[in-house]
Write a structure and sequence with these properties.
Blueprint: E1 6-7, E2 13-14, H1 19-32, H2 40-44, H3 50-61, H4 72-85, H5 89-94, H6 101-119, H7 133-143, H8 160-166, H9 193-201, H10 235-244
Antiparallel strand pairs: 1-2
The structure holds a DNA duplex (21 and 21 nucleotides).
Amino acid sequence: MVRTPCCDKSGMRKGTWTPEEDRKLIAYVTRYGCWNWRQLPKFAGLLRCGKSCRLRWMNYLRPNLKRGNYTKEEDELIIKLHESLGNRWSIIATHLPGRSDNEIKNHWHTSLKKTSKNKTSSSKRSSNKSHSKRQRTRKRRKMGIENENPSSSPNEVPVVKEILESSEFSLLQKPCENSSLQVLSLPSSSSSSTEIIEEYSSGSFWTEPFLTDNYFYSNINNNYIPPNYSLFSGIEEFICSYEENFNTMVW
DNA sequence: AAAGAAATCAACCGCCATCTA
DNA sequence: ATAGATGGCGGTTGATTTCTT
């Protein structure tokens, strides 16, 4: 459902992400983090703009993302939140761990809009366009909303390991036994998981040395910066650290 | 079975806020 | 104080898929 891949003037690729591009992005972010989206594609060997990489990661590749149908509870929550917040999808998304704002927005426009209209035809609070972005931001800051961390619910299960297990990055060679919710599945290719891990972990893959140690998720709400990240020698250590620190993290 | 309409959703665009030098 | 760089957000697009006739 996607646009035909093409190139813009500057030679950057646009359109649908290929499995190979996904692999590169996952491998890079998993290993080095998103320290600078603008620079990331260059170091990750991607012919994409930083924005495109960020979007792809945030909406489809990052850990903890649920893929699959929305539950009744989720639908109700979205409708309720939309009634009070309007089209502030990013805030709504913070209340639905595992769902991206883009996905929620799409879901709203395709399914929930009608439902909501039927239910609350008299309500005029939704789609509160009277708030300018500036106003909203100020309001949010006042309310301290940017520090909200709904995704750090103790019930959540760390899924980086699942991702690596369920994909070609599998380190443990365990079959993915997932439920109705599909957590990041990558199209398979001919390479074995071990080969791919080795490929991306080896120095030969990386065209440039990593420049910014100890800078994991660049100023995303000043959240998680893993200790001694620069000392990690491989993905397995990162996974262990990730799991240990999971409850303090926000994606 | 074929054609057209409608729905879906990944991705792009442009604007604004924040950060940094 | 200011300008440029960067990140983040919401609106929108458009190719593909599904449904309807």
